[in-house]
Specification:
globular, Rossmann fold, about 150 residues, alpha/beta, about 15% strand, 5-stranded parallel β-sheet
Length: about 150
């Protein structure tokens, strides 16, 4: 999405406003992060067509940099487990370092759910939902709907 990358080096000034957690606020958005462009485009178009404000990134570093300036408006992150640059768990750890009260909901998408490693690590990071690939669009919509996120009409 953004051409310029800013490295997050100091997270000490970053925090989430606990009073800014109105999930029905139309300024809220879903952050989608997946390195597979076809899947990212499909999920993004589908969620947008269902009335959800969605921002998507193929690159985790760019997603973190964007989130750095827009964290209070993020209600849900949907992220792929296996991507270049950093693991899904490392990405979520960065989020949880800022979001200590677990205000932002996280859905992890993985093809590796049968591996107990995914389930074991997820409990330490407070991942709200783990979904195994492949994901039918209706299932994605139902999972997102369960979190009552953003200006949804689904």
């Amino acid at each position: 999405m953004h051409e310029t990358a800013i490295t997050i080096t100091d997270k000490s000034n970053m925090s989430i406003d606990n009073n800014a957690n109105n999930l029905y606020d139309d300024t809220k958005y879903i952050l989608l992060v997946d390195d597979e462009k076809d899947i990212l485009d499909l999920f993004t178009e589908y969620l947008i067509s269902n009335g959800l404000k969605t921002i998507s990134f193929q690159n985790r570093i760019e997603a973190l940099n964007f989130l750095n300036g827009n964290i209070n408006n993020c209600s849900l992150i949907i992220i792929d487990y296996s991507m270049p640059q950093m693991s899904g768990f490392d990405f979520i750890k960065h989020i949880r370092d800022i979001d200590k009260n677990f205000i932002i909901k996280i859905i992890l998408i993985t093809a590796y759910i049968k591996n107990n490693l995914v389930m074991d690590k997820s409990s330490n990071l407070r991942i709200d939902k783990i979904i195994e690939k492949p994901i039918p669009l209706e299932k994605l919509k139902d999972e997102v709907k369960m979190f009552n996120v953003t200006n949804s009409n689904i």
